[in-house]
Amino acid sequence: MLEELKDAVWKANLELARSGLVILTFGNVSGIDRRRGLVAIKPSGVAYDALKADDIVLVDLDGKVVEGWLNPSSDTATHIELYRAFPRIGGVAHAHSPYATMFAQAGREIPCLGTTHADQFHGPVRVTRSPTEAEVADGYERNTGRIIVERVSGHFALENPAVLVAGHGPFAWGATPQEAVETSVVLEHVAKMAYGTLALAPDRPVLEPHIQDKHFRRKHGPNATYGQKKGERA
User: Is 55 a catalytic residue?
Assistant: First the structure.
């Protein structure tokens, strides 16, 4: 069932590992079939170099396994909350990439200090609050997703396609599982540049809003000018 989606999620998980954003069995990527209401996700604790497309687990939006013989990722409930809240996203990636995770552990958002950041994220990459003791004790993973939604709520999800979970690490998303991984790659890159910039110039102000907006809008939205239109040759 949903072999094409499972294959896309499998390849996206391998790309997450190839990009150096995860170690050992950390991290996961998922994708959703909106028509059927099913999520394909990496199984828990399976090494990336041993992962096969047939290992990808299908769950419904209540987290019940529909297909697969392995346990789904322990973060499955978090992914489901994001799919429920953001109907335009089709893939979610979670990593523990070092620089983005450093900002998450510090409880600091990643400010937009340059145009590389502005090309991908419309404003800062936000950081969530920490979960309460009650939220950890009962439904921790589900509540992690709800805390993300709480932080992103009011901001168009595809304009700010990532968040830092305080003390934990980054979650990123996109229209497809592959896009979610690409967002994770850019997120780590801009986190590293922000870390270095703030080390060199701790008082550096954020990039001027009109420049931020120009760089984001020329790559995203109906009037984007970046890249080639369909049918054009480079």
Answer: no
pLDDT exceeds 90 at position 84: yes
Concerning whether 83 is annotated as a catalytic residue, the answer is no
Q: Cβ(39)–Cβ(76) under 8 Å?
A: yes
Side-chain-side CA neighbours of 22 within 13 Å: the count stands at 25
> Residue 12's closest CA among 44, 38, 48?
48
Q: What's the CA gap between 209 and 146, in Å, rounded?
A: 29
CA 181 to chain centre: 7
pTM: 0.91
* CATH code that applies to domain 3-217: 3.40.225.10
Catalytic option among 54, 60, 140, 226: 226
Residue 89's nearest CA partner among 149, 133, 43 is 149
User: Which residue out of 7, 55, 119, 213 is catalytically annotated?
Assistant: 119
β-partners of residue 158 are none
Question: How far is residue 32's CA from residue 89's CA, in Å, rounded to a whole number?
Answer: 8
